[in-house]
Structure formats: structure tokens, C-alpha cells
Specification:
By secondary structure, this protein is mainly alpha-helical. The protein folds into 2 domains: about 35 residues; about 40 residues, no CATH class. The chain contains 4 helices and no strands. The radius of gyration is 29 Å and the shape is elongated. It starts with a helix and ends with a helix.
Length: about 110
């Protein structure tokens, strides 16, 4: 039995077991457990799950510091907007600025 199916079965009977007296509750729990033990998943040939990360590569670097610190390093936003667009080439200019500042920090 799959974990999800077992969880659904237990959740479906949970409220009922709370309302029963002690003896009947034990009987109900035993019945649910017997039902769970008896249920088997069928043979599923050629069922293989790939062991790989399904994350697509992105043109941005990982943000390895708090967002506020990264924003402060970029400086004030032009025109007082909250836009990430710096100049005609967009975010690329901001990334170049950040790379230059990081290089300056590491050498100095």
C-alpha cells in the first residue's frame, strides 16, 4: 500500500475513533490496521524513477547572502522605482556591477 493511501485511510477513520469508547476504539483501530496490512500494491513492471534534479539552469547566480545586503550592494534604484532593470541591457548590467564590486572586495 502506498504511504498516501495509508494516510488517507487513517485520516478517514480518525474522527470516528475519537468518538468511540475505549474498547470499541481498540476494535476499530485493529480493523483499520488489518485492512492496511491486507492491502498490497500490484506489480508495476518497468517502474523506474530517475535520480536526478529537475532544476533547469538559469542565467543568474545563486543568492548566497541576505537579499537586503545584495540590494544595498547594487546601490539606489534609478528613478526611484523598485525595478531590477538597470539600463538598456536590463539585469545583465546589475550583475556586472555586482561582479565588479565582488572582485574589488576580494582583492582589496
Amino acid at each position: 500500500m502506498s504511504f498516501t493511501a495509508a494516510l488517507q485511510k487513517v485520516a478517514a477513520n480518525y474522527q470516528t475513533t475519537l468518538l468511540l469508547v475505549d474498547f470499541r476504539r481498540r476494535v476499530m483501530v485493529e480493523r483499520v490496521l488489518d485492512d492496511l496490512r491486507g492491502h498490497r500494491i500490484g506489480h508495476r513492471p518497468n517502474r523506474v524513477e530517475p535520480r536526478a534534479i529537475k532544476r533547469r539552469p538559469k542565467p543568474h547566480k545563486w543568492l548566497k547572502e541576505p537579499r537586503e545586503a545584495a540590494r544595498a550592494r547594487l546601490g539606489p534604484v534609478p528613478n526611484g522605482t523598485d525595478s531590477q532593470c538597470y539600463g538598456p541591457d536590463g539585469i545583465a548590467a546589475a550583475e556586472r556591477t555586482m561582479e565588479i564590486e565582488l572582485a574589488a572586495e576580494s582583492t582589496g
